[in-house]
């Protein structure tokens, strides 16, 4: 397997070292893979992609693109010479240039610029839109022009920074699938930052998790979901309830002392037989369309929220979970 992007011991601080935005980060991305970067606000996602793109200088470490050192303490290749394409959340198109001119702008070779731009516009489904100006396009179309502009020079690495966060949820879902199908078709290696872990699960070959500037886990989506290495990682991918002492007593599930345990909300069952069950009083019901959210008071006074699509009658229910669904972390 060929590697396109290699990051070695990457460290970056701001404010004379007071804020460590990235702390000794190491990873690589294989050719043609889509790698999502996920983490809470301030975890270092933007700093990471800005360093890769050459928009920021590193403190220590190395960045290699296609086996070429592009950044180290001694070397800092200019952004336009790194062979990196970028798509930002705010499209960043030139308003006074037509769609075609916007795409041609990114191509550096002197030969057949127009042909290549037209081919790329066809690839992103915008054939016939060449003469329009950005303000004559919808948000989704503008984002596809931005993608065409980044892809037209055939970069080694395509970076997407929150590419769908300006779009409404219907558009976002459609465009997400379209964009990542196009990326896969071109075979470009892509790294994209997202707050939306559903985006990451849906399209990424690998997901990289940052916490306080540290890379805490990098795995395929399904592995990461099934085997999160910390409660931080687990809770990024859906609501997770920590099984504190009170909940362990309510469910009569004595767990190991030196571990932290949690259960995903979707693995809590209502009125079903399972390994650990507790009676619960329903304090509040919230109707959410396809399902309802119930605020519960367990036998021993502990509170818990469950989401269910079962019809729930009466004032009390049985809530429970199975031992196979309990997540355990060494924390
Ligand atoms: N130019 C800067 N000057 C000072 N501190 C900075 C600068 N850029 C980033 N930081 C700090 O570095 C840390 C990481 O910031 P970064 O923007 O990379 O996080 P992020 O994960 O992209 O956050 P968000 O999801 O909110 O965009 C934060 O503590 C931030 O305040």
Automatic annotation (TrEMBL):
GO cellular component, one term: ATP-binding cassette (ABC) transporter complex
Top-level taxon: Bacteria
PROSITE patterns documented for this protein: ABC_TRANSPORTER_1 (PS00211), ABC_TRANSPORTER_2 (PS50893)
Domain ABC transporter: 5-237
Gene3D superfamilies listed in its UniProt record: P-loop containing nucleotide triphosphate hydrolases
Keywords (A to Z) from UniProt: ATP-binding, Cell membrane, Ion transport, Iron, Iron transport, Membrane, Nucleotide-binding, Transport
The UniProt record lists the keyword Mitochondrion: no
Record bears the keyword Ion transport: yes
A GO molecular function held by the record: ATP binding
Biological process (GO), any one: quaternary ammonium group transport
Pfam families for this protein: ABC_tran (PF00005), TOBE_2 (PF08402)
Name assigned to this protein: Thiamine or polyamine ABC transporter, ATPase component PotA-like protein
Species of the source: Psychroflexus torquis (strain ATCC 700755 / CIP 106069 / ACAM 623)
